[in-house]
Design goal:
The chain has 96 residues and is mostly beta strands. 11% of the residues lie in helices and 41% in strands. The N and C termini lie far apart (36 Å).
């Protein structure tokens, strides 16, 4: 199943990676690109299993990383409301 995603960041130009996350194991991080992103991404078998989530990480030099998880219910809610996953993290300056 292809999942439409729109990702921004403040400031723009942050690197975005994704992984399928669970308490027992995590898949490898996959690079998606730099913000702003407007992409469709396959999440594998089409649905997340119980206890799994999609984890996105946004990174930019000089800023603290931002991480967000979506479980299956949160994905469905975003798709129903907006037709895509959307995230616009405000990056916080940090020591890296």
């Amino acid at each position: 199943k292809n999942l439409p995603m729109k990702l921004q960041s403040d400031p723009l130009g942050a690197y975005v990676v994704i992984q399928k996350h669970s308490a027992s194991s995590d898949s490898d991080w996959i690079y998606l690109g730099k913000t702003p992103l407007n992409i469709q991404r396959s999440i594998g078998e089409g649905k997340l299993k119980k206890g799994e989530s999609l984890r996105l990480r946004v990174m930019k030099d000089g800023y603290s990383d931002q991480v967000r998880d979506w479980d299956a219910k949160a994905i469905e809610a975003d798709l129903d409301q907006m037709g895509h996953l959307f995230w616009n993290p405000r990056l916080v300056p940090g020591n890296q």
